[in-house]
Specification:
This protein is an all-alpha fold and 84 residues long. The chain is built from three helices and no strands. It has one domain. It is elongated and about 35 Å long.
Length: 84
């Protein structure tokens, strides 16, 4: 896995978020390697699942809204740049 801003290991206290981040990165790498419509759809679904998980961490108080927005911006930008 490449060097990304958010290392999933930093979210040990939130296993659900850690898994969502890992899944996003794995699908991102897969789509980056093989740009098929199917891989894009899997990545998009995972992005939405990740955003939902981030929202839940705000509700739980594990993330602030500012942290959550920074994460959504980062993962959204990764997704969008790959579409160009």
């Amino acid at each position: 896995m490449n060097e990304y801003k958010y290392d999933p290991r930093n979210f040990e206290d939130s296993p659900g978020l850690r898994a969502e981040i890992e899944d996003f990165y794995n699908l991102f790498e897969k789509y980056h390697g093989v740009k098929t419509k199917s891989n894009r759809n899997y990545l998009d679904k995972q992005r939405r699942d990740l955003f939902f998980s981030i929202k839940h961490r705000v509700v739980e108080g594990r993330l602030t809204e500012t942290q959550a927005q920074e994460m959504r911006d980062y993962f959204g930008d990764l997704f969008d740049k790959e579409q160009e």
